């Protein structure tokens, strides 16, 4: 499909995994440099570093270091991820009812739903119903804009 | 072998109240829907509906989740047959002959074969579980922390090595998951990787992480699609022909029984489960058949082999979960989370002390078989319609459910934030070929792995020769090495034999 010719994502991912492993190992060592504390973490971290190095070398030799396995178009997926991130991060301010209505409506518009009745009807209907359902089910208050919190 | 008193107690638990049964039917329907919708996994359904089990007692929660599992195991075969798209990895082999049958206009018969094989598989699987659960638990009692640790590692290795060409990536994913699973306080009271946040003292919230990695990341991946399947013609269904297909399934009793046995034993191996059992059963049936060339072209035996094995695997993975407290795959990993939510630890002690509950779960699954048969027949036409739901409606609906469910689990925004973070991580992992199930199993088992290793260290006093006195540990190490290097070893042996025979000639 739209597989990019040169994708640095795999390399970045490997660097990210190695970076996390090194940071976590150093944090564990900082807490306590004792066998019981590092019994699992140290060997696992070393194994990850060795495997990551092997993966790096093998991918490089096989010419696959700059390739994605999945060929789904990133340009169409990234806005969805961004929208989902904004939805989740804005929930404490927007509340579950308004946040969900906006998220569903924007999602439908992004995916080219042209029928405004459907866009408004489904986002408002589903957003309010699901927020109300969880608000009634959960024993603690959920942030809301329209619906009652308790 | 069978505890009669516990059996009677289990039956009375199930018979005296209607409540447990009220959640079985919705559970099977949810499983059917998620299984039948490509891209929606059974484990995803269980993870999304897991928060609802907070309001159920343990038995009800398990019945609900096993009902989803049972429904999903058949549901996944529907799109595999109709559209050549396995609903889940456990129905891959179903598509090999199911779709060619559908292309020949025999999709109704193929659906009937799949339904009958699934129903029979679940029945046989739980029958074996009922008879073997006590011996398994007694055997497991003899396992110490070193054996448990090796089983955890072996299970993870098996999952990681499932995608043959990406073994290294699978291992990296599993091991990183293992590290993430150890974040927070350990057994000796030391907090690692918390960044000073008290929200992380208890570790990463596992279920929201699982929701993000399994559900949300997969939805991102398929977000560009308008519909999962565009072809309407392949969705027409006739009940009469499905009934004929059910009869056809029993014309290959040996294939069905072999599939069941392979399913239950392969399913019991941690980390393998139905994803592998359906393929193994298919390959073995094809190998033994007098006409192997007919496979892949619409041989009904191919569907029987695959569906009987994948549905029986449920009971096999339940055996591991109940007897060892170790999940066999994604679905049982969610069940393990349900165990934790109800403050229950699976394992020999649980089986010994709560035999009646274990039996009640098994008995309820016998009944689920009949519900599956009826609901399967009723829902096949409807499920085809669900595949017509545009992705633009399906995706936000499921994402919202995941976010609200995770808030319900943690009681604060750590849940939704975890879903978001692990959804992105999961999407990146899928994109670059890193095994998501391996990472999830790693996160789930990280703390347990560290605990069992620490106990082994304390018992042995740090003396490595202790392992030499543990034959089971050594055997599992052998299996672990075999699963990692077996393929290479076999290739090497074949190569040297070929060389030797060439030299002789």
From TrEMBL, chain A:
UniProt protein name: Tripartite tricarboxylate transporter TctB family protein
Q: Which residues cross the membrane?
A: 6-26, 38-60, 80-108, 115-138
Alphabetically list the UniProt keywords.
Membrane, Transmembrane, Transmembrane helix
Q: Does the keyword Membrane apply?
A: yes
For this protein, the record's Pfam families field holds: TctB (PF07331)
Q: Which residues form the DUF1468 domain?
A: 14-143
Q: Which domain of life is it from?
A: Bacteria
Species of origin reads Nitrincola nitratireducens
Any keyword tRNA processing?
A: no
From TrEMBL, chain B:
Determine the domain of life of the protein's source. Bacteria
* Domain spans labelled DUF112: 22-440
Which Pfam families is this protein grouped with? TctA (PF01970)
Supply the InterPro entries for this chain.
DUF112_TM
**What does the UniProt keyword field contain?**
Membrane, Transmembrane, Transmembrane helix
Positions of transmembrane segments: 21-42, 54-74, 111-133, 139-159, 166-185, 197-216, 255-273, 321-345, 357-387, 393-425, 432-449, 472-490
Q: What is this protein called?
A: Tripartite tricarboxylate transporter TctA family protein
């Amino acid at each position: 499909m739209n597989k990019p010719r040169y994708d640095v994502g795999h390399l970045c991912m490997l660097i990210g995994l190695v970076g996390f492993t090194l940071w976590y190992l150093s944090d564990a060592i900082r807490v306590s440099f004792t066998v019981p504390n590092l019994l699992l973490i140290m060997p696992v971290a070393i194994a990850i570093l060795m495997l990551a190095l092997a993966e790096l070398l093998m991918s490089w030799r096989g010419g696959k270091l700059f390739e994605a396995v999945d060929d789904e178009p990133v340009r169409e997926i990234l806005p969805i991820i961004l929208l989902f991130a904004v939805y989740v991060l804005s929930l404490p301010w927007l509340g579950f009812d308004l946040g969900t209505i906006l998220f569903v409506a924007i999602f439908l518009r992004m995916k080219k739903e042209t029928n405004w009745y459907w866009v408004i009807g489904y986002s408002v209907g589903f957003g309010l119903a699901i927020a109300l359902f969880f608000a009634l089910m959960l024993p603690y208050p959920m942030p809301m804009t329209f619906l009652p919190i308790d | 072998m069978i505890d009669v008193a516990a059996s009677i107690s289990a039956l009375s638990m199930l018979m005296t109240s209607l409540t447990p049964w009220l959640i079985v039917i919705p559970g099977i329907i949810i499983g059917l829907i998620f299984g039948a919708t490509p891209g929606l996994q059974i484990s995803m359904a269980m993870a999304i509906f897991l928060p609802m089990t907070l309001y159920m007692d343990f038995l009800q929660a398990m019945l609900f989740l096993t009902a989803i599992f049972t429904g999903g195991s058949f549901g996944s075969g529907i799109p595999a047959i109709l559209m050549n798209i396995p609903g889940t990895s456990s129905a891959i082999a179903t598509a090999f002959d199911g779709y060619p049958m559908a292309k020949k206009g025999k999709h109704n018969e193929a659906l009937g074969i799949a339904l009958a094989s699934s129903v029979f598989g679940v029945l046989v699987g739980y029958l074996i579980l009922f008879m073997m659960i006590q011996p398994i638990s007694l055997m497991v009692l003899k396992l110490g922390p070193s054996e448990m640790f090796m089983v955890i590692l072996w299970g993870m290795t098996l999952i990681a090595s499932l995608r043959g060409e990406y073994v290294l990536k699978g291992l990296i994913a599993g091991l990183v998951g293992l590290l993430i699973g150890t974040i927070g306080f350990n057994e000796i009271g030391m907090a690692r990787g918390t960044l000073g946040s008290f929200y992380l003292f208890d570790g990463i919230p596992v279920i929201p992480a699982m929701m993000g990695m399994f559900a949300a990341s997969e939805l991102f991946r398929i977000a560009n699609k308008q519909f999962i399947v565009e072809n309407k013609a392949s969705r027409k269904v006739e009940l009469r022909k499905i009934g004929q297909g059910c009869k056809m399934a029993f014309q290959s009793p040996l294939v069905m029984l072999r599939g069941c046995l392979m399913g239950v034993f392969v399913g019991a191996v941690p980390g393998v489960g139905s994803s592998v059992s359906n393929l193994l059963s298919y390959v073995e049936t094809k190998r033994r058949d007098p006409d192997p060339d007919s496979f892949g072209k619409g041989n009904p035996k191919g569907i029987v082999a695959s569906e009987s094995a994948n549905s029986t695997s449920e009971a096999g993975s339940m055996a591991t979960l109940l007897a060892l407290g170790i999940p066999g795959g994604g679905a049982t990993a969610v069940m393990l989370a349900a165990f934790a939510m109800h403050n229950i630890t699976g394992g020999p002690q649980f089986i010994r002390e709560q035999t009646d509950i274990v039996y009640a779960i098994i008995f309820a699954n016998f009944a689920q078989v009949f519900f599956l048969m009826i609901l399967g027949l009723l829902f096949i036409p409807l499920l085809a319609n669900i595949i017509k739901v545009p992705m633009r409606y399906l995706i936000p609906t499921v994402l919202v459910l995941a976010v609200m469910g995770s808030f319900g689990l943690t009681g604060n925004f750590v849940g939704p934030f975890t879903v978001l973070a692990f959804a992105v991580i999961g999407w990146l992992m899928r994109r670059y070929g890193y095994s998501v199930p391996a990472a999830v199993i790693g996160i789930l088992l990280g703390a347990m792995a560290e605990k069992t290793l620490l106990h082994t260290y304390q018992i042995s006093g740090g003396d490595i020769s202790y392992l030499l006195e543990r034959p089971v540990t050594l055997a599992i190490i052998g299996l672990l090495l075999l699963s990692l290097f077996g393929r290479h070893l076999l290739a090497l042996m074949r190569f040297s034999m070929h060389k030797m025979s060439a030299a002789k000639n």
